[in-house]
């Protein structure tokens, strides 16, 4: 009986670990090279793939349309003309596959400011007191063959996001 209970507890713990959210999931502020907050994002997993939606942009009308985007993009997860979708609540980060805990790649990101699509990699970087003074999300956009740039986004809360509006 004790063995049965021990086995059940071990299985329950294992199932809990499997269903736990990845460290990249949650709310993040995108920050440009000058340290200016450009948007707040919600990063989430759906169907084994990683997605990200802008949920707030400082000093921008919530109903603003992504007019700089083109009509369609290869493998975009939402049907329709992207140039007629709102900047907010559209999955501009899409179809990333999990490489390891806190590591995602193989998908894309679209910059709604200019409509350009890039290959995308996301990596969670834990606070280490040296290079990273807080937990960050490394967001890397690439044009190919490793050529691209990274931004380091900071975790945020829904209350901080509300203050951006």
Written account of the structure:
The chain is α+β, with helices and mostly antiparallel strands and 165 residues long. The chain has a single domain, classed as Lipocalin. It has two helices and eight strands; from the N terminus they run αββββββββα. A hairpin with a 2-residue loop joins strand 2 and strand 3. About 10% of the residues have low confidence.
Summarize the structure.
By secondary structure, this protein is of the alpha+beta class.
- How many domains comprise the coordinates? 1
CATH-defined fold name? Lipocalin
For this structure, what is the CATH class? Mainly Beta
Low-confidence stretches: 4-19
User: What is the number of helical segments per DSSP (H or I, 4+ residues)?
Assistant: 2
Q: Specify Rg, calculated over alpha carbons.
A: 18 Å
> Alpha-carbon distance between the termini?
58 Å
Secondary-structure arrangement, i.e. CATH architecture: Beta Barrel
Helix content range of the residues, please? 10-25%
Largest sheet: 8 strands, antiparallel, barrel
| Major β-sheet strand ordering | 1-2-3-4-5-6-7-8
* Alpha-beta content class: alpha+beta
Proportion of residues in β-strands: 35-45%
Shape: globular
Mean pLDDT: 88
Tell me how many strands there are: 8
């Amino acid at each position: 009986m004790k063995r049965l209970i021990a086995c059940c507890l071990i299985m329950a713990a294992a199932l809990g670990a499997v269903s736990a959210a990845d460290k990249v999931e949650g709310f993040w502020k995108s920050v440009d090279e000058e340290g200016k907050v450009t948007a707040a994002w919600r990063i989430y997993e759906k169907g084994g793939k990683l997605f990200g939606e802008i949920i707030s942009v400082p000093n921008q009308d919530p109903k603003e349309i992504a007019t700089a985007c083109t009509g369609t993009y290869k493998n975009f997860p939402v049907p329709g003309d992207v140039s007629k979708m709102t900047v907010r609540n559209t999955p501009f980060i899409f179809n990333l596959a999990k490489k390891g805990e806190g590591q995602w790649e193989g998908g894309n990101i679209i910059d709604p400011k200019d409509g350009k699509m890039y290959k995308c990699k996301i990596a969670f970087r834990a606070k280490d007191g040296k290079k990273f003074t807080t937990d960050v999300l490394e967001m890397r956009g690439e044009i190919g063959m490793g050529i691209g740039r990274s931004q380091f986004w900071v975790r945020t809360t829904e209350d901080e996001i509300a203050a951006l509006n």
